[in-house]
Amino acid sequence: MLEKLRSINIDRMDIDEAIELAAFGKVAATTYAAYEVPVPDWLTDSLKTLDADIKRRRRDALEARLKTLQARKAALRSRDEERADIDAELARLSGVLGQP
Hints:
Helix content is 79%, strand content 0%. It is mostly helical. It has one domain. The model has no long low-confidence stretch (mean pLDDT 94).
């Protein structure tokens, strides 16, 4: 697993593998520190890369879920709600264009 950290390729791993590798890397960094051995730069760099990738993937998943929920909620709207939204948008656009 240490070799995976040295030659990290985030494009070839799913989020579970990235989290597993990050956990291993954090333990390795802590162990280096416990023995008062400097943490190698490649390990620090790999952990930063993994952290950024995991956060990006989590954000992407949350944004996808948000879009799904917004679409489901929009599908539940009544005709009157849709009509009110259209009327509000028409009024806003007419105001911007200076039309009655």
